[in-house]
Amino acid sequence: MKIKFGSTEENIITRDEFPLSKAKEILKKETISVLGYGVQGPGQSLNLRDNGFKVIVGQRKHSYSWNKALKDGWIEGKNLFSLEEASKKGTILMYLLSDAGQIHFWPILNKYLTKGKSLYFSHGFGLTFCNKTKIYPPKNIDIFLVAPKGSGTSLRKFFKKGKGINSSYSVYQDYSGNGLEKALSIGIGIGSGYLFETNFQNEVYSDLVGERGTLMGAIQGIFAAQYQVLREKGHSPSESFNETVEELTQSLMPLVSEKGMDWMYANCSTTAQRGALDWWKKFRDATFPIFQELYHEVSSGNEAERVIKSNSEMNYREKLEKELQDLRKSELWKVGSIIRNLRPEKKDEI
């Protein structure tokens, strides 16, 4: 359906107009091969399987993710295979390896992309930055994308509750003339709340900016700055963490998600209202140049080049663990670990 957001009209696909029964009918002759069982692979493959699609998983044998797939109920030789075997058997190849993994495996996968097959992505990185990734697919296949706006863990969690995470969709190459129907069918099959139209470039630009911005990078920076100021001014670790993180994540964000920020402002104390309304534009103006710089670095390809170079280094995992340890051992998140374990639901589990 067409939905107007102000002066902009967008294509939005809901479960009502594209029901699961329709998706299953469209893909009834397809073997969906999920390549990679890391971030998105488990959630998407398990949801598709539980929804009644024919799904197999491809993963490097005896890796951590291979063992995870076994624990999740996939059976070697029946619906769990090596990446090469799954690439051969599938008619729709869901390329869900990491960006670095996609670059590494591409010369092998390309051999299995025979005429009439379909190639699926959940991220536009590989094709948008093809001059860097060297991912150049053949012209006689369908290529499309469905990108859940959340982690694979959340996708699975929401699915099991009968809910769904919204996803974007795009058709990059429609060789068969049925590329759009296939994309929407998988989008519904993995449990999307609704689907909104994009293109591969816009998906990766917005995704990279979001990850580095309000979703992860910027929010951690703001957490760290506010916590540090409160601690330096004599506030206790518990008070500083609760006022910085706990109240936001446990109380306010769920309400913002349900009602909107305007509702939040209207339903807090007048002191909080006045302060929030007086200060939010200062934070916007202070961070706007950073977001402009960030978008330029993403759209220019500079960020992609840095990511590919870093993720391709032999000792990347060791460096990553060091950075994560630095976060984990910071007072902010050590306090956070203690406070999370004090939540009532945690105590009930104990």
Give a description of the structure.
The protein is an alpha/beta fold. The chain folds into two domains: 2-198, Rossmann fold; 211-349, N-(1-d-carboxylethyl)-l-norvaline Dehydrogenase, domain 2, CATH 1.10.1040. 58% of the residues lie in helices and 13% in strands. The chain is built from 18 helices and ten strands. The chain has a ten-stranded mixed β-sheet, sandwiched between helices. Helix 5 links the parallel strand 6 (92-95) and strand 7 (118-121). Helix 1 (20-26) packs across helix 9 and helix 12 (237-259) crosses helix 17. The longest helix has 30 residues, at 270-299. It is globular, with a radius of gyration of 22 Å. 29% of the residues are buried.
Straight-line N-to-C gap: 48 Å
Please name the CATH architecture of the largest domain: 3-Layer(aba) Sandwich
Strand residues, percent: 5-15%
* Integer count of domains: 2
Major sheet details: 10 strands, mixed
Low-confidence stretches: none
- Average pLDDT value? 94
Please state how the strands of the largest beta sheet are arranged side by side: 1-2-10-9-8-7-6-3-4-5
User: What is the CATH third-level topology name of the largest domain?
Assistant: Rossmann fold
According to DSSP, the number of beta strands is 10
The level 1 CATH classification of the largest domain is Alpha Beta
- Which class best fits the helix and strand makeup? alpha/beta
Helix proportion of residues, in percent? 55-70%
What spatial form do the alpha-carbon principal axes imply?
Answer: globular
Q: Counting H and I runs of at least 4 residues, what is the number of helices?
A: 18
Q: Roughly how many Å is the radius of gyration? A: 22 Å
Topology order in helix (H) and strand (E) letters: EEHEHEHEHEHEHHEHEHEHHHHHHHHH
Classified in CATH, the superfamily of the largest domain is NAD(P)-binding Rossmann-like Domain
